[in-house]
Design a protein that fits this description.
Length: about 170
């Protein structure tokens, strides 16, 4: 099953006919056994975004297992995102304070207090992509990763490690 197989489900979600609670209870989605955070941020929020589908539409969703992992800050330094959004992480990194300031106040407080994001981003093992490659890629959370890179560059408080949902086969 891939994103295109979920197009009718995405159409119902777009029409406002599906809350996240109803969306997540669809049999095709419960069979994935994905954590709610991943299901919401990957499929519910982005599953019908054209550029996102261009980058990840061919992924076999049933082949992905998600785990919450601790990733060193240095690992995010050159981590790519999808082809359709090359350069977007760097765009956010240019002004990390702005991208935090336009979020809810608790996001900024969390960066200041903990040196990391409030909500873990989604990373995908590049071996699952076509063409297959090594390492991890930012699937969702480009702003957060950009803020991290910008904070490192500006020598602001950054934790040495960060939580992220990682999808692997």
């Amino acid at each position: 099953m891939n994103l295109n197989d979920l197009s009718s489900l995405m159409d119902r979600r777009q029409d406002g006919g599906l809350s996240f609670e109803r969306f997540r209870s669809e049999p095709a989605l419960t069979a994935l056994r994905w954590p709610d955070d991943v299901l919401k941020n990957f499929l519910f929020d982005h599953g019908d975004n054209g550029l996102f589908v261009d980058d990840y539409g061919a992924l076999d969703l049933t082949a992905i297992t998600w785990t919450l992992e601790t990733i060193p800050s240095a690992s995010f330094h050159k981590m790519p995102t999808g082809e359709s959004e090359v350069g977007l992480i760097e765009h956010f990194a240019k002004d990390p304070l702005h991208w935090v300031a336009v979020r809810a106040p608790e996001v900024g407080r969390h960066w200041e207090d903990h040196g990391t994001w409030l909500r873990p981003p989604l990373l995908i093992d590049r071996g699952l992509l076509a063409p297959a490659s090594n390492g991890l890629q930012v699937l969702e959370g480009r702003t957060r990763v950009g803020v991290l890179r910008g904070r490192i560059r500006e020598q602001l408080h950054v934790a040495p490690e960060h939580q992220a949902w990682v999808g692997r086969s």
